[in-house]
Amino acid sequence: MRIYVPSDTTAVALGADAVAAAVQAEAQRRGLELVRNGSRGMFAVEPLVEVEVQGLRTAYGPVSAGDVSGLLDALESGADQHALFLGPVADIPWLASQQRLTFARAGEGDPLCLDTYRTLGGFAGLETALQMAPVAVVAAVTDSGLRGRGGAAFPAGIKWQTVLDTPASQKYIVCNADEGDSGTFADRLLLEADPYQLLEGMAIAGVAVGATLGYIYLRSEYPLALRVLQDAISRATAAGYLGDDIRGSGRNFHVEVRLGAGAYICGEETALLESLEGRRGVVRAKPPLPAIEGLFGLPTVVNNVLTLAAVTTVLAQGAPYYRDFGSGRSRGTLTLQLAGNVRQGGLVEIPFGATLREVVDEYAGGTFSGRPMRAIQVGGPLGAYLPEGQWDIPLDYEAFAAAGAMLGHGGVVVFDDTVDMSAQARFAMAFCVEESCGKCTPCRIGAIRGVEVIDKIIAREAPQENTALLQDLCDTMEQGSLCAMGGLTPNPVRSALEYFPEDFV
Question: What's the structural domain count of the chain?
């Protein structure tokens, strides 16, 4: 009998280490094997304990250390009668109704076990890529319709093709793992639950464009992910999946981890490159594009964790398989992270095309407070606040853009009817004040003026004139800012003004 207890950050924060210690204390006497697996992303029932008997895994949760002895006793009789019984893992509605491609292996076993990764189909994409010409690998990524999952949604294949076509003595693959959007945790969950998938995706990218060195720019607040990644890199290199002469192919690809600078702006690709080079994270003017003059002035692929991880599915299953999921120009699956005032927070992976209402109703389970939902912010702190009338928009890039919103990295933050939307609009401007790199005037000064004007509106100082001034200021920031930091800050402000005007009175 195997007992699985998650080891990721969220589960540990909720007491998983104590649960694992309690299981281990009983292991020898009861003939049990303890496995620390990755989380499946069902945070409402963490710590989630899974019991495997003859290949069938049954879930219990949320389990505390004090529940362990009684749970183990119940396993010897009628375990399905236990109060924490959730049923066979594969039949839990939260998981069964999803279509997991990128997170298919999350929670299945020890994240650092290479045998587990290979048994579950790991490295099949890399093995395929090593048998292909670089241009064919890039073509497969292009044909799949994969777009960047970091927020900009730029087609990954076009970026790779640019790097492939740019001659240089050295090229780089840079993974943006500086996950800074509020309410997001998908990158961290994948790094802690399935780290080899990212390493495989980066190696495929290196093979495709002729890069021999990759850097993972990791958020500094992710210490567990750092330890897992460093261990995974060491093991993958020893097994021949990284390093020199990968799997006897004659191709070389090395990976190193660098800790981020603790600044939101370093999630912007050019500021990230500045930081990676050892300077302050300040946005670069474009052109030149990073694909042509990126890290150290050389051609660089900059993709985020989920984009590079998705590449493994494209190469292992083929471009048509991946492209068959989704809708319109949004192909594959979308990873949403439910947070804020929700009963059931966690990670959901589904094909593009469902509506926001369907996702929140089916997976979030209503608000944690029990009060009605009033607003949902999608796409991080720079995403629009959507009222109920906007919740039936299909979850795809073009539909959201047409509504003045964005999917971004997939963060979904729910607010109940007690929220003050004028305070949320002010927060958006104040966030920009705090996180702006300061290079361009519209962002650096505009956000400061924005906070001041919103305060005047709330205080009823010439409200009509100041509202018009705020709208004009938003236009200036959107059109004049050097990057998306200042350019997108007006989104939450405008949406609050448009959809919740009563909160500014």
Answer: 4
